[in-house]
Amino acid sequence: KIPGLFHINERVAFIGRWDYGFFAMVAVGATNVGSIKVHFDTEFNTNTGHTNLNEKIYETPIELAKGDEFGYFNFGSTIVLIYEAPVQTTLDKEHMKRVKMGERMWM
User: pTM of the entire structure?
Assistant: First the structure.
Protein backbone atom coordinates (compact mmCIF):
# COMPACT_ATOMS: atom_id res chain seq x y z
CA LYS A 1 0.00 0.00 0.00
CA ILE A 2 1.21 3.48 -0.86
CA PRO A 3 -0.07 6.21 1.50
CA GLY A 4 -1.77 9.06 -0.36
CA LEU A 5 -1.63 7.23 -3.70
CA PHE A 6 -4.84 8.75 -5.03
CA HIS A 7 -3.71 12.35 -4.62
CA ILE A 8 -0.49 11.75 -6.56
CA ASN A 9 -2.11 10.13 -9.62
CA GLU A 10 -1.84 12.02 -12.92
CA ARG A 11 -4.82 14.31 -13.46
CA VAL A 12 -5.78 16.39 -16.46
CA ALA A 13 -8.92 18.53 -16.54
CA PHE A 14 -10.40 19.35 -19.93
CA ILE A 15 -12.78 22.26 -19.34
CA GLY A 16 -15.18 23.82 -21.78
CA ARG A 17 -18.77 24.37 -22.73
CA TRP A 18 -21.40 22.25 -24.43
CA ASP A 19 -25.03 22.74 -25.46
CA TYR A 20 -26.20 23.03 -21.83
CA GLY A 21 -23.37 25.03 -20.23
CA PHE A 22 -20.23 24.09 -18.29
CA PHE A 23 -18.47 20.81 -18.95
CA ALA A 24 -15.36 19.25 -17.40
CA MET A 25 -13.83 15.88 -18.13
CA VAL A 26 -11.08 14.95 -15.70
CA ALA A 27 -8.79 12.12 -16.79
CA VAL A 28 -6.98 10.35 -13.94
CA GLY A 29 -4.06 8.11 -14.90
CA ALA A 30 -2.11 5.74 -12.65
CA THR A 31 1.06 7.28 -11.20
CA ASN A 32 4.39 6.20 -12.74
CA VAL A 33 2.84 3.57 -15.00
CA GLY A 34 0.19 5.24 -17.10
CA SER A 35 -0.14 8.21 -19.34
CA ILE A 36 -2.98 10.14 -20.90
CA LYS A 37 -3.01 10.77 -24.66
CA VAL A 38 -5.37 12.96 -26.69
CA HIS A 39 -5.78 12.82 -30.45
CA PHE A 40 -5.97 16.57 -31.03
CA ASP A 41 -2.58 17.49 -29.47
CA THR A 42 0.50 15.42 -30.29
CA GLU A 43 2.65 17.52 -27.91
CA PHE A 44 0.41 16.74 -24.92
CA ASN A 45 2.45 14.57 -22.56
CA THR A 46 1.72 13.28 -19.05
CA ASN A 47 3.57 11.15 -16.50
CA THR A 48 6.91 12.76 -17.27
CA GLY A 49 8.13 12.74 -13.67
CA HIS A 50 7.70 16.52 -13.31
CA THR A 51 5.38 17.77 -10.58
CA ASN A 52 4.78 21.21 -12.04
CA LEU A 53 1.29 22.31 -13.02
CA ASN A 54 0.57 23.48 -16.54
CA GLU A 55 -2.36 25.18 -18.19
CA LYS A 56 -2.95 25.19 -21.91
CA ILE A 57 -5.68 27.17 -23.60
CA TYR A 58 -6.49 26.13 -27.14
CA GLU A 59 -7.08 29.11 -29.44
CA THR A 60 -9.34 27.01 -31.65
CA PRO A 61 -12.03 25.16 -29.66
CA ILE A 62 -11.79 21.37 -29.72
CA GLU A 63 -15.00 20.10 -31.27
CA LEU A 64 -16.03 16.46 -31.23
CA ALA A 65 -19.10 14.78 -32.64
CA LYS A 66 -21.03 12.16 -30.71
CA GLY A 67 -19.04 8.92 -30.83
CA ASP A 68 -15.69 10.53 -31.73
CA GLU A 69 -12.68 9.18 -29.86
CA PHE A 70 -11.10 11.82 -27.62
CA GLY A 71 -7.95 9.96 -26.62
CA TYR A 72 -6.84 7.05 -24.49
CA PHE A 73 -4.96 5.86 -21.41
CA ASN A 74 -1.83 3.75 -21.74
CA PHE A 75 -2.48 2.04 -18.40
CA GLY A 76 -4.77 2.54 -15.40
CA SER A 77 -7.59 4.99 -15.79
CA THR A 78 -10.66 6.79 -14.50
CA ILE A 79 -12.78 9.51 -16.09
CA VAL A 80 -14.74 11.99 -13.98
CA LEU A 81 -17.46 13.99 -15.76
CA ILE A 82 -18.81 17.21 -14.27
CA TYR A 83 -21.33 19.17 -16.31
CA GLU A 84 -24.45 21.27 -16.43
CA ALA A 85 -27.42 19.41 -17.88
CA PRO A 86 -31.02 20.22 -18.76
CA VAL A 87 -33.27 20.55 -15.71
CA GLN A 88 -35.32 17.50 -16.74
CA THR A 89 -32.23 15.22 -16.71
CA THR A 90 -32.52 12.54 -14.04
CA LEU A 91 -30.20 9.76 -13.02
CA ASP A 92 -31.58 6.64 -11.43
CA LYS A 93 -30.06 3.32 -10.41
CA GLU A 94 -29.92 2.00 -13.97
CA HIS A 95 -27.57 4.90 -14.84
CA MET A 96 -25.29 4.32 -11.84
CA LYS A 97 -23.10 1.63 -13.36
CA ARG A 98 -19.66 1.13 -14.78
CA VAL A 99 -19.44 2.30 -18.39
CA LYS A 100 -17.06 0.63 -20.82
CA MET A 101 -15.50 2.16 -23.90
CA GLY A 102 -18.06 2.61 -26.66
CA GLU A 103 -21.02 2.08 -24.36
CA ARG A 104 -23.80 4.67 -24.36
CA MET A 105 -24.27 6.52 -21.09
CA TRP A 106 -27.78 7.99 -21.07
CA MET A 107 -27.95 11.08 -23.26
Answer: 0.72
